[in-house]
Amino acid sequence: MIYVTVGKHSQAFDRLVRKIDEIAPSLGEEVVMQTGVSAYMPVNARYFSSIFFREAEQFIQQARLVVSHAGAGTIMLARKHSIPLIIVPRRKRFNEHFTDHQMELCQVLSEEKRENLYVVYDLDRIEETIRHVLDCGKAPVSFNSNGRDKILHEIKIFLNGNI
Amino acid sequence: MKRKTVLFVCSAGGHLTELVEIADAFAGMEKVLASYYEDKSLEGNVFERHYTLQDPFSPVRFFVVISRVVRILVKESPSVIVSTGSEITIPFFYLGKLLGAKLVYLECSAQVYTPSITGRIVNPITDLFLVQWKNLVGKYWKKARYAGGLI
Lengths: 163, 151
Known about the structure:
The complex is a heterodimer.
Chain A: E1 2-5, H1 14-23, E2 31-34, E3 46-48, H2 53-62, E4 65-69, H3 72-80, E5 85-88, H4 101-111, E6 117-119, H5 126-136, H6 146-162
Parallel strand pairs in A: 1-2, 1-4, 2-3, 4-5, 5-6
Chain B: E1 5-10, H1 14-21, E2 30-35, E3 49-52, H2 59-76, E4 80-83, H3 89-98, E5 102-106, H4 117-122, E6 128-131, E7 145-146
Parallel strand pairs in B: 1-2, 1-4, 2-3, 4-5, 5-6, 6-7
Helix pairs in contact in B: 2-3
């Protein structure tokens, strides 16, 4: 199953939803989409506008591949469960977000060349990227939780000294 | 002795995902959530209580939300307020500060080179201000610390 998610942002991301719906029949894999406030309604995939927090995490865990807007929450969950991930930034100029911070996040993540994480800027390339990820079957990389551990440590030190 | 309360504040989406991810740092405290997200799957699981608020993006709603923020703060009397953004953090932090709460803010990992507007606004009064990318250190009025990132 390919899980496609555009998050809970108040602006639509029709570009991605429509494109995935177009190519869904030829992917040879079930597609499930969380479409947010998108006006476009998929015809080739099961979809819903929004789901509960825990259900979203379950879909991500069960997926062979996650295709997502460059939202930090989904990126974090896909990494945590070692699921291959393709991200497509929302663009300010298409009224998909208030700012272009998703572009910045995509740039820094592609510079870091993380395993099993692919950035697609041009939607004409998404189909080949999906095929590549499904075909290459790379072993999942185990998630490195160093960053989280350090943040927790920092907060605990603060609490010990102040509360 | 009554356990101390930590109030988790955030809007929906990734802000909440990141906040849940750091909830373990507050082990032993009574964890209460205030967010836009109506989701009972988190209650009893991560948080003991959950308040749902509307976003304050209309003049009428603004006053409704602010009065609700005040009531939540008075009722819960949190020792600590922790947030990952976004705008709903601003009234909770400024009013919570007046009531003596310590403030912990983690800039969302979506902010790489540019501070968030919420981050800039609450930075001057925040007691522990963390960012998730090194590029952001030094881009705020007061000191921001980089420890690591969640993604």
